[in-house]
Amino acid sequence: MASAASYMCLPDAERIPEMGPAERATGKIVLDVPAKTGTLIYAPGFVDQAWEWKL
Prior knowledge:
Shape: globular
Distance between the termini: 19 Å
Strand order of the largest sheet: 1-2
Helix content: under 10%
């Protein structure tokens, strides 16, 4: 998922590449959310995992 606002925030070398099954990557992500404080939790329904970031 990406937005126009978040896409241009990082140079190509720092973005996490497109990934396939069982691949691992290291990189940066940009969270394009209106909140400046709190916690963002991303928990897609199709996997039994969630990711959490402090804002």
